[in-house]
Design goal:
Layout: E1 7-9, E2 22-24, E3 29-31, H1 41-44, E4 53-55, E5 78-80, E6 87-88, E7 102-104, E8 109-110, E9 126-128, E10 135-136, E11 150-152, E12 157-160, E13 174-176, E14 181-182, E15 198-200, E16 207-208, E17 222-224, E18 229-230, E19 246-248, E20 255-257, E21 270-272, E22 277-280, E23 294-296, E24 301-305, E25 325-327, H2 343-379
Parallel strand pairs: 1-3, 2-4, 4-5, 5-7, 6-8, 7-9, 9-11, 10-12, 11-13, 12-14, 13-15, 15-17, 16-18, 17-19, 19-21, 20-22, 21-23, 22-24, 24-25
Length: 380
């Protein structure tokens, strides 16, 4: 009954349907009972011992998940309740569902810590808890989820470190931890997950360097490490990640040159290196990136000529603001680059000063010798 205009309360009598396997009510306007903050729907559904799919997302239920949630059928495989204005804590008994492989509780108002009992869900493949008010640490118990492929915890109030053991989950494909208060280094073994497709760790307080192993991510499409406290250089090995479509390292404390090997990222569409301390020139190898649509290096210490080939002909002045000594065409609002039209002038520029100095020294020597000889004659 999804995607309709149903209103009112979900009737508790649904629990009388003892052979119910699928209950899909998402994208309606049904609510919970106003008489109690706890959603009695879940208590009534405990009679449905064959329930496999429960999807109530995108309804204004505006209630609390009761502890009786853990009494639902052990056959439950997917539980979708995103965008339901759910409040309170996630019940610890959510770890009772041995067959559950998808939990979607994103975009609610859930508070409290993430239950460690989720680590008991050995078949769990997808966990959506983003856009809530969860706080505390990311439980190490997640590392027991050997089938976990997608972990979304963004836009919460999580703090502490990223568990090192996440780098041991070989099935992990998508990791989204952005917009929290995480403050550790990025576990080095995370970059050894060669089947990663996307990583978003932006808007935290992460520190440390990018390791050489980042180039081993041959199938990754997106890396967003912006708005952290990362330092060090971009390793040349990053050119090995040739499936990258989007790379953002903006608003960090990184330094050193922009590596030529970025020109090997043949699929790149977005490259944001703004608000760092990068120095040197913008590599001309980036002109070969035929799909590059967004490029930003403002607030760095770059110098030299801005490339003009490829998609650089389309970038605006804003992409290059506030650098040390960039030069280029007038539309980019930078000084023109100095050019030596006659190579003979370039030679004279370096030859004339030492020659002039030598002539001056010889003239001074002769002058001093002449003065000395004059004094000798006067004495005699």
């Amino acid at each position: 009954m999804s995607i309709n205009s149903f209103t009112g309360c979900i009737p508790n009598t649904l629990g009388s349907l003892r052979f119910l396997k699928f209950l899909i009510l998402e994208s309606n306007s049904v609510t919970g009972e106003s008489s109690t903050p706890e959603l009695r729907l879940f208590s009534s559904l405990t009679n449905c011992r064959q329930l496999k799919i429960l999807s109530i997302s995108l309804n204004p239920l505006n209630g609390i998940l009761p502890n009786s949630l853990g009494n639902l059928s052990s056959s439950l495989q997917t539980f979708h309740a995103s965008g339901c204005q759910l409040k309170g804590n996630i019940p610890t008994r959510i770890g009772n569902f041995s067959n559950l492989y998808i939990i979607d509780l994103g975009s609610n108002q859930l508070t409290g810590p993430i239950p460690k009992t989720i680590g008991a869900l050995q078949n769990l493949e997808v966990l959506f808890l983003q856009n809530n008010r969860l706080h505390g640490y990311i439980p190490d118990d997640f590392c027991r989820l050997r089938r976990l492929g997608s972990l979304y915890l963004s836009d919460n109030k999580l703090y502490g470190q990223i568990p090192t053991c996440l780098g041991e989950l070989k099935s992990l494909r998508w990791l989204d931890l952005d917009s929290n208060k995480l403050s550790s280094i990025i576990p080095s073994n995370l970059w050894s997950l060669e089947d990663l497709l996307g990583v978003n760790l932006s808007s935290n307080f992460l520190r440390g360097h990018l390791p050489l192993e980042i180039g081993n991510l041959e199938v990754i499409g997106s890396i967003d490490l912006s708005r952290n406290h990362l330092s060090g250089t971009i390793p040349n090995t990053i050119g090995g990640a040739q499936s990258l479509v989007s790379l953002s390292l903006a608003h960090n404390k990184m330094q050193g040159p922009i590596p030529q090997s970025l020109g090997n990222l043949i699929s790149l569409e977005l490259l944001d290196l703004s608000s760092n301390n990068f120095s040197g020139v913008i590599p001309k190898s980036l002109e070969a990136l035929r799909y590059l649509q967004y490029f930003n290096v403002y607030f760095n210490r770059l110098k030299g000529e801005i490339p003009t080939g490829g998609h650089f002909a389309n970038f605006t002045a804003k992409s290059f603001w506030h650098n040390d000594a960039l030069c280029g065409v007038p539309r980019l609002q930078v000084p023109p680059c100095e050019t030596n039209k006659n190579p003979q002038f370039a030679v004279l520029k370096y030859v004339l000063p030492p020659v002039a100095l030598a002539i001056l020294v010889v003239a001074l020597v002769f002058l001093l010798m002449g003065c000395r000889n004059q004094k000798i004659k006067l004495k005699t």
